[in-house]
Amino acid sequence: MLMSYRGTSFPGGYESQTNLSAPTVRGVLTARLSEMLGVPTSSLGLAVAGRTDAGVSAKANLFSFVSRTPIEIDKFVENLNCKGGDMRAHTVVPVERNFHARFGTRGREYLYVLPLVPEVCGTEAAAYAHAINTFLESVVGESLDYFGMSKGHVKNSNCTLESASCWCYNSSGTVFRPTNQADGEAVSGFGQAWRTVIQDNEKEHCLVFRFRANRFIRRMVRKTINSLLLEADHVISKDFPNNWPTRWKEQLKQRDRSGNTPAPSEGLCMW
After folding, report:
1. How far apart are CA 218 and CA 250, in angstroms?
2. Which residues pair with residue 108 across a beta bridge?
3. Tally of CB atoms within 10 A around 30
4. Confidence of residue 122 (pLDDT cuts 50, 70, 90)
5. How far is CA 54 from CA 1, 71, 147, in A?
6. Angle in degrees, CA 214, 208, 122, rounded to 5
7. Coil vs helix vs strand at 138
8. How far apart are CA 263 and CA 241, in angstroms?
């Protein structure tokens, strides 16, 4: 089952917690499925491709669950969506009984939108995007240890970024595109949408990150973004020697989590 949801409507995050009264993605969805199927939540076997933190949205997150009675899919989707709220089912298909959303998903993709303060605009904003893309180009396609970009307490922190890019936008459209995306946007139509949001204020820039990987560990995307921005600060202030393009990759190898707080969750969307 392919679902989308607005993260700000689920301040409890994804996982249900007995000591937390705030709505969670899992809590709301299991309650709806339990009511529709007439079974206790414990028998649903609900699984998800990616658990998201509080505030993180999803354009497409894959779920799997168990139903012991036949489902009329079109009616099921209609009834699920008529419950209202900022959660919506898009596609439901039958699968083999042993399918699991987490292990059956081949790849995951995230989009992050970061508005910049008005003081960072024009060529400086584009310089951030250029430095960040240079860092990312040095790691894409390699299996690397991202423990330093994690929440910690993870058994396996090796991941492969299959693609990773950063765009810079202002009120007139794209200021900077990655070299491998010369004719494309981060998302089709994003430039026009950004112009609408900022109402043609030429000093309002944003960076848009897009990551695809074989797997992500907890907090990896948001900590990666914060780390990239910190490293880009050094590049722009000319604190780095000539070998700066590989500095971020070398930082990954140190597995150091100190001083790296995650970027705000509200800018992140599972894509």
Report:
1. 21
2. 213
3. 18
4. confident
5. 21, 31, 21
6. 150
7. coil
8. 27
Work out the angle at residue 236's Cα, subtended by the Cα atoms of residues 176 and 257, and round it to the nearest 5 degrees: 100
Whole-structure pTM value: 0.90
For residue 50, the one-letter residue type is: G
Report CA Rg, the chain.
20
Q: Which two tokens stand for residue 162?
A: 């299959």
Is 29 buried (19+), middle (13-18) or exposed (0-12) by CB count in 10 A?
buried
CB atoms within 10 A of CB 241: 7
Q: ∠222-168-157 over CA atoms, to 5°? A: 25
**96-112 burial string, b = 16+ CB within 10 Å, else e?**
eeeeebeeebeebbbbb
SS3 48: strand
Contact of 113 with 56, CB cutoff 8 Å: no
Which two three-digit tokens encode residue 145? Answer: 């240890």
> Which pLDDT does position 34 carry in this prediction?
95
